[in-house]
Specification:
Aminopeptidase; 184 residues
Length: 184
């Protein structure tokens, strides 16, 4: 892994599992992302998932899970060549520094390079998670206007982002790829 202060993402390996599982979130955030240790176990056991670790230089600051199942996020096929984003988190000790949006952009860039056939990244964000919604918007995600019921913390808003385009162009490109309005 590069020895720089740059934010980057790497695949979750068994060697990183304990450190990723020890990431901390606030009690309120736990309702949105779950328990990081449980997320690691579930990710490593799921052949349709890729666990990822977020680093700033050599420091582990977060993690997420890519869900490649055909019904990821919505429970039904959504956009052609889509992938789901689950359990995205920045450790509470590294929050409030603008790293969430930068990490979301880095994960989209990485996904576009490693899986160029994937065109759209989907996620469900809880309605009360205002910080998460703002972070995803800064990273080029757009609300679709679709709400999903359930979840530990209540209703969830479906957001998406086009892959392989700069964050500033992503809302229009994503909407075009799934035939929806860029306004949500």
């Amino acid at each position: 892994m590069p020895a720089s202060s740059e934010l980057h993402v790497v695949r979750l390996t068994p060697a990183l599992a304990d450190a990723v599982g020890a990431l901390q979130v606030t009690p309120q955030q736990r309702a949105y992302v779950g328990d990081p240790a449980v997320n690691v176990v579930n990710t490593l056991q799921d052949p349709l998932s890729e666990g990822m670790a977020i680093f700033c230089g050599d420091t582990l600051i977060g993690s997420y899970r890519l869900d490649f199942s055909p019904n990821a996020i919505t429970g039904r096929p959504y956009a052609p060549a889509s992938v789901g984003l689950r359990a995205f988190l920045i450790d509470r000790r590294h929050q409030q520094r603008g790293r969430g949006a930068r990490a979301a952009i880095a994960l989209c860039d990485d996904l576009a390079v490693r899986h160029p056939q994937r065109q759209v990244l989907l996620l469900a964000v809880h309605a009360r998670n205002r910080a998460g919604i703002a972070t995803y918007r800064r990273a080029g995600f757009v609300a679709t206007g679709t709400w999903l019921s359930g979840g530990r913390a209540g209703p969830q808003q479906l957001m998406l982002r086009a892959l392989g385009v700069p964050a500033r162009c992503a809302p229009v490109a994503a909407a075009a790829r799934v035939g929806e309005s860029a306004d949500g």
